[in-house]
TrEMBL record:
It is found in: Cytoplasm. The lineage of its organism: Eukaryota, Metazoa, Porifera, Demospongiae, Heteroscleromorpha. One of its GO terms (molecular function) is unfolded protein binding. This is Nuclear migration protein nudC. GO terms for cellular component: cytoplasm. Residues 107-132, 188-200 have a biased composition (Basic and acidic residues). Its main location: cytoplasm. Belongs to the nudC family. InterPro entries: CS_dom (IPR007052), HSP20-like_chaperone (IPR008978), NudC_fam (IPR037898), NudC_N_dom (IPR025934). Residues 222-282 form the CS domain. Residues 176-187 have a biased composition (Polar residues). It comes from Geodia barretti. Coiled coil: none annotated. PANTHER family: NUCLEAR MIGRATION PROTEIN NUDC, NUCLEAR MOVEMENT PROTEIN NUDC.
Amino acid sequence: ASSGLWRRLLVDILRKLIRNLNRWSRKLIRNLDWQSVLMASEAEDRFDGLLLRLAEEHTEGGIKELLHTFFGFLRRKTDFYTGVNRGEAEKVVLEAFRKNEALALKAKREKEREKERKEREKEEKKRKEKAASIRTTTDAQPGIMEVTDEEAAEIEREKSEKSAPPTSPPDGPSATPATPSSTQENATDAKENKSSKVKDDSEEEEDEDAKGKLKPNSGNGGDLPNYTWTQTLQEAEVRVPSGVTFPIKGRDVVVDFQPKHLKVGLKGHEPIIDGALYNKVM
């Protein structure tokens, strides 16, 4: 008898839904989560067509009016409220509500986590691209400093001052005649002159050995026609004058630093430095 009652109730619902197929609720359709509908199991979505048509009849009252209609149907056509123990109907409704609420919240959290994951991947990709760009820029300009025309002129002036020969007083014997009272002084002077001569001879020998070699500059490096370099225990610095009168920028500088070869110059100009290195640079 109970199964027959439920069968008749279902037939009544179907008849009512069929009579009202001409009315649609576009507002409700726009708010549906179609992705969730497509992912629902076959057991859940087999009544979606009927329920959608029922919902489309409640465009004015919305979900609240739809619930009133459904619970009113249970009141009028079933013993849902009176056929069970007091409070049992409310318990069934709350259980259904909480179950579906938990599923909805879980789906929302998963959607938010997926969105956060994609954002993290996007930020990580940007960070890696930026780091790679910085490494490429650093590798393209190793150890070469760009100098302005004023700095180049100052370097040339310092080189000229360092290469100028020092002035010395004219050589020659003293014109002061010796006197008996200065005999001891003359002997002392002769001894000092002999010592000075030995020292000068030693310096001349060192100068002979230094011929053909580059004299170190104040930075323990060297000054050459096309560049100047200095060094410390930690690093070596090379300064290359541009030789042009117009302002230059970093992108105008061409640097090709290989393990055994160095090439430095300006775009559209002959290289200022283009030669092999003394030793391989790691």
